[in-house]
Design brief:
Number of helices: 6
Bound molecules: adenosine-5'-diphosphate, magnesium ion
Largest sheet: 6 strands, mixed
Oligomer: single chain
Number of strands: 11
Strand order of the largest sheet: 7-8-9-3-10-11
Length: 216
Amino acid sequence: MNEVILKIQNLSHSYDDNRLSLKKINLLVDKGERLSIQGPSGCGKSTLLRLIAGLEEPHEGQIFINEEEVSSPGFSVPPEKRQIGMVVQDKALFPHLSIYENICFGIKKSTDKEQIALDLLNLFKIEELKNKFPHQISGGEKQRVALARSMAPNPNFIMLDEAFSALDSDLKVSIYDEVLEIFQGKNITVILVTHDTEEAKILSTRQLNMDNGELL
Ligand code: ADP
Ligand code: MG
């Protein structure tokens, strides 16, 4: 039987009083699934991810992670307690921390912290970047580091918000292959927001469209 990792019921959100940026969203995501959400700019994709992450509170509806309620009007489990990894297009890395320290950042104090970070550096083939700083590495390398960092605390799932949009198209294709292998190999649950149809096709197991605040 499939294990539901994320359940969204009747979720609506408005940034101001007279316009809904999300309209009665219902969604189930199973463990190990890679869901992509595509739609035009301004349709509410980032808003949905922000609500799931706990960065916004819903106007109506509920969100459950592993069957535990995390959001409803007037109630919100803080982002750091939701155990979700998130990668966005920009402002991905801490500029004052080395690549190694960036990856370690979200790992709770534990004896195998170093091993977790080394395994991720190895998995993403970025061992040699360990002691560099974000301004010393390329865009593609930054996205690998950001992905490694999002996976470091062993999150319930990871969310990618246009994470690859800034990369040029040759680079994208090779990154997709590598990332897909990692997602499949580790059975990572992924929610991917993109306006790139090719990216959605390659990386996801289920594709949904969004328009004007509604999931279609
Ligand atoms: P997408 O990620 O699909 O481009 P967003 O979720 O960012 O769309 O935006 C959905 C709608 O909410 C848009 O109309 C946008 O202008 C509005 N919006 C987004 N963020 C804010 C905010 N912080 N304050 C007010 N309105 C916002
Ligand atoms: Mg967006």
